[in-house]
Amino acid sequence: MSKSTTSVLPAVIVFMPWLALVGAMLWGKSRPGFAKIVYVGSTVATLLAILTLYPRAQGGVASTQKLVGIAPRVSLAFRVDTVGFYFALLLAVLWLLCAIYSLGYIHGRETRYYCFLSLNLSFCLGVALSANMFTLFIFYELMTLATYPLIIHEETEEARRAGLKYLIYSISAGAVILLGLILQFYYGGTLSFLGHGTLNLSQVGKPVLLTIFSIYMLGFGVKACVMPLHGWVPDAHPAAPAPASALLSGVILKVGIFGIIRVVFEVFGIELLHTLGVSLPMLIVASFTIIVGSLFAITQDNLKRRLAYSSVAQVSYIVLGLFLLSPDGATGGLLHIAHHAFMKGCLFLCAGIIIHETGKKNVSEMDGIGSRIPITMAAFTVAALGMMGIPLTCGFITKWFLGVGSIQAHRPYFIAVLLVSSLLNAVYFLPVVYVAFFKGRSPGEELRLSKRETKRSMLVPVIITGCMVIALGVFVTVKGFPYSLVEVVVKAFF
Amino acid sequence: MEHAAYNIDIANSVLPAIAILLPLLGAAAVVLIGDRNERLRDIVAACFSAGAFITCAAMFPRVMSEGVRLTVQLPIFFGDFRLTADSLGLVFASMASLAWMLATIYSRNYIQHEERRTRYHTFSLLTEAATLGVFLASDFFVLFVFFELMGMLAYMLVVHSQTFEARKAGVKYIFMTVYGGLSLLAGVFLFLMYAGGLGFKAHPGSAYLTTSICFVVAGFMMGGFGVKAGMVPLHVWLPLAHPAAPSPASALLSGVMIKAGAYGFLRLVGTFHSVVPAQGNIGLIASRSGEVEQAAHLPVFMHNLHSLGWVILWFGILTMVVGMVLALVQNNAKRLLAYSSISQMGYILMGLGLGAYMGAEGGMGLAGGIYHIVNHSMFKSLLFLGVGAVYFRTHRLEMSKLGGLWRKMPVTCALTCIGGLGIMGIPLFNGFASKTLLHHAVVEALGVGGAWIRAVDIIFMVAAGGTVCYVAKLLILTFFGHRREESAHEVKEVPWAMRLGMGGLAAGVVLFGVFPGLVINKIVVPALRPFIDLDPQSLHHLEEIKIFTLANIVAILPALAIGAGIFLVATRWDLFRLKLPRGAGIDYYYSRTEVGFLRLCFAGSKRYAELRATYWPMARSTGEYLYDSWKATGKRYRGFRRVALGRAMTIPMDITGLAAYIRARQFTGDIAYGVIVITACAALLALTLLW
Question: B175 at the A interface (CB within 8 A)?
Answer without folding.
Answer: yes
